[in-house]
């Protein structure tokens, strides 16, 4: 029985591969559709906690800025990835001036922390770059990929539990997967993909591609010995700023006049 379980687990890991929208092979133990469903539940729980703590920002000026810039990015995201048309695009603005962070879950549910604006003094173009980057993680199925890595870890724990006849070890695997799915950093490969796709989204939406370089310069400079939380889950690919600078001429050709895209409706969670 134990040998059979280990064989099944090994086959699962070997066969659970998919091709990402970028053409890269990805480990997929969970489908993108399932990732969207599970992400929605996690998002509602997380936003519910923010609401209980009175941390959801309702400032009309900030809400309009976030919704407008994000809405332009979503317009281009849908044009490039039509399967995202029916996603529940929304943003929670979190009142946390010390936290420099933003994220986008599978299915288009996002959060932005006020520390991004407080500490980085973002221009609209720089904010477009960071949200384009986050949206790209969802478009490229990075959420499902990260959850699959967590599940792979759990499968290993399950196998150890089966071999050791310790049910507690097996039970711990589920908790490990749930935690890792939320906390695992993106791979550097995923970061490079999100850098490129995010820059393209921002440029097509009408924002200056040079802002990608200035954004990461600001991100690297803030915090000194204590880097922003954003960088803990977004490890920098090698020579990130140089790589982005090299992309700029190519990206600028996509929208040489900087024409602003229409604004797709994006819900501001209040």
Please describe what this structure looks like.
With 270 residues, the protein is α/β, with parallel strands linked by helices. The protein has one domain (32-143, 185-269). 61% of the residues lie in helices and 8% in strands. It is built from 11 helices and 6 strands. It has helices at residues 2-15, 32-52, 60-80, 115-120, 124-139, 142-164, 167-183, 188-205, 210-221, 229-233, 240-252, and strands at 17-19, 25-27, 90-94, 102-104, 109-113, 267-269. Strand 4 (102-104) and strand 5 (109-113) form a beta hairpin. The chain is globular. The termini are far apart. Mean pLDDT is 81; it is low at 4-15 and 156-179.
What descriptors fit this protein?
single chain; two-stranded antiparallel ribbon; 6 strands
Quick description:
By secondary structure, this protein is of the alpha/beta class.
- State the separation between the terminal residues, measured CA to CA: 51 Å
Sequence of secondary-structure elements: HEEHHEEEHHHHHHHHE
Q: Strand content of the residues, in percent?
A: 5-15%
Give the fraction of residues assigned to helices.
55-70%
How would a textbook summarize the main sheet? 4 strands, mixed
The largest sheet has its strands arranged as 4-5-3-6
Give Rg in angstroms. Answer: 20 Å
Q: Supply the number of structural domains.
A: 1
- Going by helix content, strand content and strand pairing, the class is alpha/beta
Identify low-pLDDT runs.
4-15, 156-179
Number of helices: 11
Global geometry: globular
Overall pLDDT, averaged?
Answer: 81
Number of strands: 6
């Amino acid at each position: 029985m134990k040998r059979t379980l280990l064989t099944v687990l090994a086959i699962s890991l070997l066969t659970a591969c998919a091709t990402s929208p970028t053409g890269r092979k990805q480990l997929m133990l969970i489908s993108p559709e399932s990732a969207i469903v599970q992400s929605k539940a996690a998002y509602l729980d997380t936003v519910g906690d923010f609401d209980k703590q009175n941390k959801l920002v309702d400032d009309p000026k900030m809400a309009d800025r976030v919704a407008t810039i994000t809405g332009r990015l979503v317009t281009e995201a849908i044009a490039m990835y039509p399967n995202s048309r029916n996603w529940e695009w929304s943003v929670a603005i979190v009142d946390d001036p010390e936290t420099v962070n933003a994220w986008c879950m599978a299915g288009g549910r996002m959060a932005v922390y006020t520390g991004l604006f407080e500490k980085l003094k973002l221009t609209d173009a720089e904010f477009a770059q960071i949200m384009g980057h986050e949206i790209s993680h969802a478009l490229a199925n990075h959420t499902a990929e990260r959850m699959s890595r967590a599940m792979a870890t759990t499968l290993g724990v399950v196998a150890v539990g089966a071999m050791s006849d310790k049910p507690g070890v097996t039970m711990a695997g589920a908790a490990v997967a749930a935690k890792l799915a939320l906390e695992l950093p993106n791979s550097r490969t995923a970061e490079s993909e999100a850098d490129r796709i995010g820059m393209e989204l921002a440029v097509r939406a009408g924002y200056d591609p040079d802002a990608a370089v200035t954004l990461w310069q600001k991100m690297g400079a803030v915090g000194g010995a204590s880097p922003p939380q954003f960088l803990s889950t977004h490890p920098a690919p090698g020579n990130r700023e140089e790589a982005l600078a090299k992309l700029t001429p190519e990206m600028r050709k996509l929208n040489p006049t900087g024409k602003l895209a229409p604004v797709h409706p994006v819900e501001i969670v209040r």
